[in-house]
Hints:
Elements: E1 2-7, H1 16-26, E2 30-35, H2 42-50, H3 55-73, E3 81-84, H4 91-98, E4 104-107, H5 112-118, H6 127-140, E5 145-148, H7 151-156, H8 159-162, E6 165-167, E7 187-192, H9 201-212, E8 221-226, H10 232-239, E9 245-248, H11 256-261, E10 265-267, H12 282-289, E11 293-297, H13 300-306, E12 311-313, H14 318-329, H15 332-349, H16 352-355, H17 357-362
Parallel strand pairs: 1-2, 1-3, 3-4, 4-5, 5-6, 7-8, 7-10, 8-9, 10-11, 11-12
Amino acid sequence: MRWAVFGTYDQRRHPRVAVLIEGLRASGDEVVELNEPLPLDTAGRVALLRQPWRAPRAAFDLLRCWLRLRRRSRALPPVDAVLVGYLGLFDIRLARRLFRGRPIVLDHLVSAAGTARDRGLAGAGGLKARLLRWVDDSALVRADLILVDTDEHLAALPAPVAKRAVVVPVGAGSAWFEPAKPREGPLRAIFVGLFTPLHGTGTLAEALAALAAPTGDEVDVEVTMVGTGQEYAAARAVAGVNPRVRWIDWVPGDELPGLVAAHHVCLGIFGTTVKAANVVPTKVYQGAAAGCAIVTSDTPPQRATLGDAALFVPPGDPGALAAALRSLAADPERTAHLGAAARALAEAHFTPAAVVRPLRAHVPSTQQPPRS
């Protein structure tokens, strides 16, 4: 089967599409990429809600990418199906015009309305929220098959749309499955993220501050914090009392697997938002593939995905998070067991080839006349 993976996605910022491409190729399919990355990441797109006067520039950039995609599509060989990459809520409109008669698959990893609501940028009933719901709905109606990442996101789709949707976990690229190196010394934990409310970095910062306070039963916990974003300054101000926290603004994508694998623990998310309760974040899949012990919030999708291969704490509970890290620091054998269990689970279910199985199984049923 020959796929066109289409859109303005950026694999450097969003590894999801790279995992899907790798999985399709590993499964024996041919993949042709038709990609013109839009110079606007998720944070930039969300910022348009705060600064709507930037919209004309964003629209110009999108149009320029679309003109290139249209021009390049003329030389594309015939394809059997089209996958519109993550953040393709507008790209699917062009894909539908360029690939008439071909099944169009939309990777709907996040919704525009849900992201804005999660970041406190749009209330449920306001004009912005209604506009973003229209963006979501008008994209979904154009897709023959819709990919979501959890059962919770599937249940949130409108009933007519849900009939054309399938759960495809985020997974991790093959670079994350490199043989694990021995992890020695004091417990080292790592967090990688954009410091949004979803991640619960306020909770994490309070936990890190608590780890610096004397308890009478001291254990060493070193923490690496990678990334910047909405709550970065506040988190650093709170956690700055802990001298064992290292802050790194940015790490090149090809260096990140090795950095994470050098740590005993990969920290997931700890937020209390609706979105935080419905996702399994990319970093959890990647940390599991790297053989780290996973510490993350106790939410239905994460518990269903990870089972006994993670240590769960209540969302928004810094005391529980600090206690969990102390317990792992005091019990290296348990930490190693959790890391091995996470790695085994990832090898069985989170590889690129494994995560695309539901996608490949559902594509034949989508071959139908294009939607208007």
